Amino acid sequence: MTALMLTRRGRSAASGEEPPALFDAWGGGPTLEDVISGVWEGLAAHASVTCPVCAGELRPQYSAGAGVVGGRCRDCGSELS
């Protein structure tokens, strides 16, 4: 098991700028919110999407009705609900 500790430090002494907030886009890539929203959009359209954990196939999971209630990855077993 790996533990990850995220800290927010004060202003950089060299540049005098605040570091980015944890959930701000940084480095030009998508935010966590962008990634998860995109996955949900695909699942809601009853489509398989790329797993945000392992890049495998995340398939929609259904409730007793016709609605999508989440997804499960065929490769790593991760679930989104």
Brief account:
This protein is of the alpha+beta class and 81 residues long. The protein is built from 1 helix and 4 strands, in the order H-E-E-E-E.
How would you describe this structure to a colleague?
This protein is α+β, with helices and mostly antiparallel strands and 81 residues long. 16% of the residues lie in helices and 20% in strands. It contains 1 helix and 4 strands; from the N terminus they run H-E-E-E-E. A 4-stranded antiparallel sheet has the order 1-2-3-4, with helices on one face.
Write the SSE topology:
Blueprint (H helix, E strand, L loop, with lengths): L31 H13 L4 E2 L6 E6 L5 E6 L5 E2 L1
Antiparallel strand pairs: 1-2, 2-3, 3-4
Count of DSSP E strands?
4
Sheet-strand content, in percent, reads 15-25%
Sketch the topology as an H/E string, one letter per element.
Answer: HEEEE
Task: Round the Cα radius of gyration to an integer and report it.
Answer: 17 Å
Tell me the structural class: alpha+beta
Mean pLDDT: 80
Shape: elongated
- Counting DSSP H or I runs of 4 or more residues, the number of helices is 1
Distance between the termini: 23 Å
Strand order of the largest sheet: 1-2-3-4
Low-confidence stretches: 1-12
Share of residues in helices: 10-25%
Largest sheet: 4 strands, antiparallel
Question: What brief labels describe this structure?
Answer:
single chain; 81 residues; alpha+beta; four-stranded antiparallel β-sheet; 16% helix; 20% strand
